[in-house]
Amino acid sequence: MAMGDLFSGMLQGEEQIAPGAVLLRGFARDIAPALLACVAEISRVAPFRHLVTPGGYTMSVAMTNCGRVGWVSDERGYRYAPHDPQTGLLWPQMPVLFSDLARRAAEAAGFNGFAPDAALINRYVPGSRLSLHQDKDEDDARAPIVSVSLGLPAVFLFGGLNRSDKTRKYRVEHGDVAVWGGPSRLAFHGIAPLADGDDPFTGNCRINLTFRAAL
Ligand code: SIN
Ligand code: FE2
Fold this sequence. Notes:
By secondary structure, the protein is an alpha+beta fold. The chain is 15% helix and 31% strand. The protein has one domain: Jelly Rolls (Sandwich), CATH 2.60.120. The longest helix has 14 residues, at 32-45.
């Protein structure tokens, strides 16, 4: 097969991981420092915290949000809420830099008109992990999920629609963006325990932004 056929319809650095799911290598690399500056500002108002799952487990990933609503978890369950339960304040507004990046990445993956109302911000330190799960607390499953990796590299696990489906591993690095929607919208995914490291931008952590159309 000629290279032209192999890459037809795909941008360079774009890797299909499943139907409706792509990895856009380096898509956010240029604006990564500005994204991280926004994260620092957001976390001054809405600090990173370790949420407790309905089952009583304290997550190893620290989280905060920006946008019209934020994802929260406690003993009552998972949901999107307009206020930060820790401060009682509205979540910080989503920077235009964020929503614009999310829209462009979704479009590059074939999903036009993505308008996220929530950005969950995850912070991983070495050893932090996110076990296999589906993103299914959003009302509109027609919209994709856009996930931006910053700082230390991680191993992204991507499976199928059943928890028991085989997962594949993808190394995600600073500036990489993953988008999943359509037939992969409810695919199980997770992050393997973060390896130790020292990143020029974030030091010893990984920051992940996931954009959702929640309501
Ligand atoms: C998530 O599934 O919400 C986050 C995935 C990631 O950290 O890359
Ligand atoms: Fe997720």
